[in-house]
Amino acid sequence: MRGDAMKAIGVRPALKEVVMLDHQKPATVEPTQVKVRTLDVGICGTDREICTFVYGGSPAEGSDYLILGHESLGEVIETGAKVSTLKVGDLVVPSVRRPCPDPRCRPCAAGRQDFCQTSDFTERGIKGQHGFMTEFWVEDQKYLTLVPPTLRDYAVLAEPLTIAEKGITQLWELQKRLPWANTTPGKRPGEGLNAVVLGAGPIGILGAMKCVLEGFNTFVYSRSKKPNEKATIIEAIGAEYISNLEVSPAELAKHIGSIDFVYEALGVAQVSFDVIDVMGMNAAFCFTGIPEPEGKITIPGNQLMRNLVLKNQLIYGTVNADGPAFAQAIADLSEIQTRWPEALQKIITARFTPDDYNELLVGKPGGIKNVIAFGQEP
Ligand SMILES: NC(=O)c1ccc[n+]([C@@H]2O[C@H](COP(=O)([O-])OP(=O)(O)OC[C@H]3O[C@@H](n4cnc5c(N)ncnc54)[C@H](OP(=O)(O)O)[C@@H]3O)[C@@H](O)[C@H]2O)c1
Ligand SMILES: [Zn+2]
Ligand SMILES: [Zn+2]
């Protein structure tokens, strides 16, 4: 490898190849930029989906490949002259989405590219910009969140937790329509309410942790029967795990009483709409799952519409997250580490070397959250 080159893991979409590349080491160009040495990169369904070459995964601008990786933790090794918020040695997590170039896009102009109107945004490691599955990367300070050293082993989970952070911030914004809700001083906003999390993958487990932190009585409704590793984590945080192979949605609703909030983390439309059908009065349903676009399901449309109206229900979707959601994710990971250290530890199945990329991206590695650790010899 040349002296100015480093290892990177990426895809060449035109050739449908998942490869280990030599990529030029990045340098800070702008005075507000920071150079970061990668420590951990999480692998998620999005990375694996890009490697199927069916949807998404456009190369970085000016390149015929895309470096993967959007769930990252790194250490600052260099700061530009105008970097005021970070110093060498700090741990940081980067956000993923960058604004579109259209000056008329009000969300992007307001720094809320997670709500971009044009769809011309880029996403590091996903769409049009190289990601973090490489030894070094450079980013503007405004897209970085400081991580306390105590979270060194877990901050790679910040990005998948931000999905719940944004989803639940949106929930409380939307439920301002219920002016008597969550207003008692000293009470957490979910206290006395029931939340159902659909799915027990990393998005569901982290979503369930957030629901418990918010004070909800939390139930996780997923597939595999107990006993299993995911159910063990769910029970360790004081939530209840229920398999839909054993309990129907109607039985679930009867068991819980009123379902006030549903955080969907399945990517399965049929199960989701079956649960919408049994939600309670004034309930809200947050979709995060991204199923393949093909395929049709059968739903009781008239019944669902009646319920939405007669029960004042709402359904919303959420994607990506803003800077404050990252800051909240870091704060919540610290609380999770204090309250449920063993459950948190179990979410990260294993750390692998970069050379294991093929099995992790296109094989059947199993586990909950697999992480590639950079800068460590096997
Ligand atoms: N909105 C966003 O910004 C965003 C960001 C990242 C990911 N996502 C999406 O979030 C979803 C979840 O991601 P993930 O990484 O946590 O996924 P995952 O690891 O595949 O987990 C899915 C979970 O759903 C369960 N499940 C699957 N099919 C089911 C069924 N028919 N009935 C009941 N349970 C079922 C699985 O059960 P088992 O445990 O038995 O396998 C598993 O626990 C995906 O659709 C992903 O695309 C969205
Ligand atoms: Zn991800
Ligand atoms: Zn935009």
Question: Mind explaining what this structure looks like?
Answer:
About 25% of the residues lie in helices and about 25% in strands. It has about 375 residues and is of the alpha/beta class. It folds into 2 domains: about 5-145 and about 345-375, Quinone Oxidoreductase, Chain A, domain 1 (Alpha-Beta Complex), CATH 3.90.180; about 160-315, NAD(P)-binding Rossmann-like Domain (Rossmann fold), CATH 3.40.50.720. Strands 3, 5, 6, 10, 11, 18 and 19 form a 7-stranded mixed β-sheet that branches. Strands 14-13-12-15-16-17 form a 6-stranded parallel β-sheet, sandwiched between helices. A 3-stranded antiparallel β-sheet has the order 2-1-4. Helix 3 (about 160-175) packs across helix 9 (about 325-340). About 40% of the residues are buried. The model has no long low-confidence stretch (mean pLDDT about 95). NADP nicotinamide-adenine-dinucleotide phosphate binds near residues 44, 45, 163, 203 and 268. One zinc ion (ZN) binds near residues 44, 70, 71 and 160.
